[in-house]
Amino acid sequence: MKPALSTAPEPLRPILVGDDLGEDTPPSEGSLAAPVNVDDGEGEHEKHDPELPGPAWQGLLFALVPLLVILFGAGREAWSKGLAAVLVALVMVVFPVQRRLPKIAIFGLVGALLAPLLAFLPVDWQVGLPEWRTRLISDWGVPLSSTISPQAWVTWEAWLLHGTCLAWLAWCLIRGFSSEQRRSMLQTLTFGGMLLCGLAILEHFKWVEMSWWPRNPMAWGEGFGPFANRNHTGSIAAITSLLCAANAYDAHRRKSRRWMLFLLGAALPLACIFINTSKAGVILLFFGLTTWFGTSAMRKGFFQKMAVALSLVMVIATLLVISGGGVGSRLQSGEFKQVGARGMLVAETLKMVLQSPWLGVGLGNFEAIFPLVTEFHEPRSRFVHPENDLLWLLAEGGLLTVLAGLVLVVWILRSSGPWFGKKRKGAQNRLDRKLRNAAAIAFGMGVLHGLVDVPNHGLAFALLMALLAGILVRPRRLRTADGPADRLLVRGAGVVVLLVGAGWLAVTLGHASRFPGSSAAESLRTRANWLTMTGSVAGGLPLMNEAVRLNPMSFEFYFERARIWGYLGRPKDEVLQDFSRSRALEPHYAALCYQEGVFWLDFAPAYAVIGWRECLQRYPAAAPGIHGTYRQMLNHAERYPELREPLWAMASSVELKLDYLGTTRTREEFDRCLRSMLELQPQFEGIDGFQRKALFDLWNRLGDPKTLMTELERNKKWRDDGWSLLADYHARNSDFERACRIAAAYLPALNRATPDAAADIATLERAMLFNPNDPRRGIDLFQAQKKSGDIDAALRTLEKLSSIPKAPAYLHQEIAALYVEKEDFRRAWEHFREAMLKP
Q1: What is the rounded distance in angstroms from the CA atom of residue 306 to the CA atom of residue 555?
Q2: Measured at the alpha carbon of residue 115, what is the angle toward residues 113 and 118, in degrees to the nearest 5?
Q3: Cα–Cα distance, 470 to 283 (Å, whole number)
Q4: pLDDT in tens, 125-180
Q5: Which residues in 651-676 are b (16+ Cβ under 10 Å) and which e?
Q6: How far is CA 227 from CA 214, 222, 231, 280, in A?
Q7: Helical packing angle, 267-276 and 279-292, nearest 10°
Q8: Torsion of CA 400, 402, 405, 410, to 10 degrees
Q9: Interior/surface letters 459-471, b for 16+ CB within 10 angstroms, e for the rest
Q10: Closest CA to 456 of 605, 636, 235
């Protein structure tokens, strides 16, 4: 009789937060057990999710597409866009789709793709032309397109970019991923996000150089990471942190030791968020992790979920404190603190939308049109977008595009889950559902960020969001298999995207004429400026003319073409016409006008006044002061005396007049300007005491001091601010008594302490002898000596005190008062002058 066989006990494994002891033990990694298809929670009588075949290595390739685009330029420049389009096209062509979208999703996708094309309808079809469009054409001769979009080629390229993203989204939705592919894609995105965060940190500390990452500190501020906007890097880091947690949980449930890699790797995106001091990163991190804890990581127990969520809040708060206040200070600054500015931007954008609510102004036109329809502006910078993805799409694409897009997004979100309800046992299906839900939360983080910023308008971020959308969709939402027509249509779209990518790469290689659009215009502009700087000015003009034709509402193009015409010696009025067009297209930006004036100095100095006057009107707050724009204009005008009088006429405030008077070189010029100032303000009305004192100082130094002193003697209000000059004038004329009387009358009154009546002079002298650096001992002795009538001894005591460190500032005034009692006014004035110099 054979002995009974006993099975070895299953080895114990650690229990993590969220483990449900009632769940079936999932198959370990590499197990040969077939996946169990069971109901995942929407009801006992529903069919199982259909599982499509597909190797995991394909998921790795699919996830590499957005990661490589983010790594190599984030799809901002033409070369990066071309690389992204080629990668997307290759995947779409090589890997055919396996499912078909339902009709509602097809409606949203096709509507979002075709609605922006309505901007190419003739402009005559638009009801009522906007006032700005009529003004630009009739007053300034700007060659706008004859379509609803004023810049047809700009809109065309923006639509191609829009279509590339939608084609990738469609492929991601209907490719039909297997469970292993979804897991592989999420793991690849996680490891790729770790790499990007690590490179961002290394680049921030100057340990590596990523020269191809977009950087422009003057326009975009200090950069961090692969995106031009550092908040988008924070968003990627927050999504990576969430995926680290989800993949660590999944690996642990499958008994894979890879969970330790994800857990340790989460330190990189977290460090990236706090080194970046990203507001978006912190908020999205909190939103994503708390949502994941409450819906996916933990199946049961409301109080358990709340406890974990509260712990997470405390951890994030602790990290905010540990980070030295960088993140906290950013959360309290900018738009999070000045919500009124952000609200005003939203309101002005909606006003812009009302001018063309259904069709919009055409993709790619917000930056050019917004300054023309709003008075809300910041003269030091420009609004290139409305800080909101939805508003941006609404302004440019109109309600038709937005409504179609919302239909598609709502269908995607409704296709996720299930999130709640009865869950039946089935470990494999359950783990796949949790990974899909993690992808849905990551997708929601991107959507949420798009309500306060514009990450989804960036090509790289949009490709990542599209892939997450494809991962999160439940297989049962795509029940219909594809057909030959579907595969042919998608592959045809892939070929079109490939051609678009080739066009962007052609622009990068210098063949701008083969792919007209905003990228071609920017390339032509760059080449024209390079030729101009290298001396081939005539060769740069045709390139700039072509750039203006492709992008007729770029104020920078007209500004730079005006400079080229100036270098070529064209008529001044022709040069001025382009400068005027530039100012008309950008009516708020002040630096543009200042640079125009500087340019004219070498060709026609008298024309510099035109731009400079506009600069002072646009940004008056930046004009006064030693570093103000008006002082810089005066510095430039030192070589051109003919500009002095126009600049004086431009001084519309007291501060500017004082700045001008401080640069006068002759008494005649100062007296002439002062007389014109007194004609308007005989008593210097509206001028405060500080400004009046500054004016008197200039008058005494550059003008006629005798006239000033006569006025100070006669006018008490003036004397209240100019008494020090009057006292010094009398002293220079040896009338020390008069100078001392004036100084004594206007210097602050002395609050003399009463000496201790019980202490005699000998005791006070001993106290001062043993405490020579204590001014209080000396002051008590001085008071006692003065009270006793020993003025000479009191003077000696004060002179000793005045030489010790931290001596009271009023000692010179006390010494001067004693010399006045002795009628030694010359010495008294010396000490009064010292007292006047003390702060």
Answers
A1: 54
A2: 130
A3: 25
A4: 888 889 999 999 999 999 999 999 999 999 999 999 999 999 999 999 999 999 99
A5: beebbbbbbbbbbbeeeebbbebbee
A6: 6, 11, 8, 14
A7: 140
A8: -120
A9: bbbbbbbbbbbbb
A10: 235
